[in-house]
Specification:
With 97 residues, the protein is of the alpha+beta class. It has one domain. 38% of the residues lie in helices and 10% in strands. The protein contains three helices and two strands. It has helices at residues 2-5, 25-36, 53-73; strands at 37-41, 47-51. It has a two-stranded antiparallel sheet with strand order 1-2. A hairpin with a 5-residue loop joins strand 1 (37-41) and strand 2. The longest helix is centred in the middle third of the chain and has 21 residues, at 53-73. The chain starts with a helix and ends in a 24-residue tail after the last helix.
Length: 97
């Protein structure tokens, strides 16, 4: 969840500074797209983009679970519609065993 919460937004704020009603499916999908790709530098100093699907999926799964737990504990404050559910998270490409 820290991966999601620490994500910096276009306006310079962090994702965890947003209020619960501001979490829409579009907002969550945009954050997921940003978490999915990371830029690294190789030994030659070139920028290489790589996918980190496992970490992005784990962050979204943790947020989905936290939303359900929060909704159950504070049903008047947390909406029943979970923007993290039904995201269609795909498993990372792994070699066959």
């Amino acid at each position: 969840m820290a991966l999601f919460a620490d994500r910096e937004l276009k306006d310079g704020t962090r994702a965890d500074s947003k209020q619960i009603p501001q979490f829409s499916k579009g907002f969550v999908d945009a954050i997921y797209a940003k978490l999915l790709v990371v830029e690294d530098k190789d030994e030659d100093g070139n920028i290489v983009k790589r996918e980190r699907r496992r970490f992005a999926n784990a962050a979204m799964t943790a947020c989905r679970r936290a939303w359900f737990v929060g909704q159950r504990a504070q049903e008047k404050l947390v909406p029943a519609i979970n923007p993290f559910s039904r995201m269609g998270l795909k498993a990372p490409n792994q070699p066959a065993r």
